[in-house]
Amino acid sequence: MDGDIRFYNTLTHSVETFSTQEPGVVTMYTCGPTVYDYAHIGNFRSFLFADLVRRFLAARGYEVRQVMNLTDVGHMTDDELADGGGEDKMEASARRLRTAKKAGRADVQQLDDPGDPRQVARFFAEAFLADARALGLAVAAEYPQRMPFASQHVARMQELVARLLARGHAYVGRDGAVYYSVASFPEYGRLSGNTLGKLRAGSGGRVSAAELAAKRHPADFLLWKPDAAHLMRWESPWGTGYPGWHIECSAMALELLGRDTIDIHTGGEDNIFPHHECEIAQSCGATGARYFARYWLHARFLQVEGEKMSKSKGNYYTARDVFSGRVTGRPVHPAVLRFELLKTHYRAHANFTVKGLQDAANAVRRWTEFGGRLAGFMQALADDLNISAALAVVLPWIAACGDEPATALGVFRQIDAVLHLAGLEAESPAGAPAGAASGDAAALDAAALCAQLDAARAARDYATADALRARLLEAGYEVRTTPAGTVAQRRLA
After folding, report:
1. Of the residues 278, 299, 320, which one is the last residue of a structural domain?
2. 85 neighbors 211 (Cβ within 8 angstroms)
3. Four-residue CA torsion sign, 372, 375, 377, 380
4. Tens digits of per-residue pLDDT, 57-71?
5. What angle do CA 340, 415, 480 make, to 5 degrees?
6. Host domain of residue 364
7. What pLDDT, in 10s, does the model give residues 412-439?
8. CA-CA distance, 359 to 291, in Å (whole number)?
9. How far is residue 421's CA from residue 423's CA, in Å, rounded to a whole number?
């Protein structure tokens, strides 16, 4: 299996031939969401890229053991400073939800106490899982074993902190917090290119004088913060408090994948620094291994209509915004969003557009129809070798492409095992999970209306035929005339 697969490795800044440590087995860690809000489409571009890697390797015969974390503690509003500054994002979210519930916002009324960060985490984790399953993330089917909450692994994080202190990679600062000493790890900066000299020179204005005084180097990052007043806190040898953000991924990857060195680590390009740089330092510092992950794969940012996505610009979309029709004015099938977020190479900036979604819907429809024709050919032959029905299904397509149907069906199934479009399109209705189809569409017998439309045309009652076609279109169907008669299929977008 190894030998002809190549990946661009951010760690070495080069394309490398892929190989595994254990024959036939891939250990893979994916940085997951912080469950303090609904996941946006930029988040899902990164998660779907990881899913594509996983499904491709599985299609090549590997057993892929993937872990994705659900961050519910330690992720601070000033994480880019690498020292845990600002406010815990779970606390900030709890405050917003408390206000939203008082204002009567429908989606948060189920929360008994929106000020409880643990309830907030479960609320948004359930929303993320619903969206992730709708989009076909394989790892979402392995919750909670392969998708655990960070708060469930605090004891393991404390063990790593203790090991780093014992090995001289960490120290207790003047403020009582435990910091990782970046100077103790000569390879710090290899992943991102941020040398210690650059980090010291670039620290001005980003870190307060008090924080600088507590640390040996401006880039030293937080491992444990004593804070007895923090909403989410645990007892520790360094005082009641909470873990730094970076330590969770090291702890969870090492524990759940059972290796000091894993094969693949994925994430978005925004994770490269400081998060992944810090993961490498603390993981290798604790284990003594040369590598934490042998291959680091990062997806680039997603733009919306050529601009950076932001709430202030009004172009910030969650996955369920797309599903529910907020972007296009009509429900969008998850398979369409999956295709739209996957179709651009992961190391190129992707541009999410309304036109792109519409094109993606057409592509998914063609793809699933292609598979349907091949499957119909095989099913017809299975019915007492009904060759005339089988040929009627595929002869037009054979004339166009010339391949053997049985061979093409095998190729189709193998490709769809990676893209997961036809299977996903068949699993859920358009617009799931944000809501089912409209009442009119759900109650409609599309096949019966198509038959009535054909009968009206045969009787030259074109007014009735046009009215039936309009009814189908208004209910969200695509209506087409085929040699076998009128066909109506639910719109994907």
Report:
1. 299
2. yes
3. negative
4. 999 999 999 999 999
5. 60
6. 303-427
7. 888 899 999 988 877 765 445 544 344 4
8. 42
9. 5
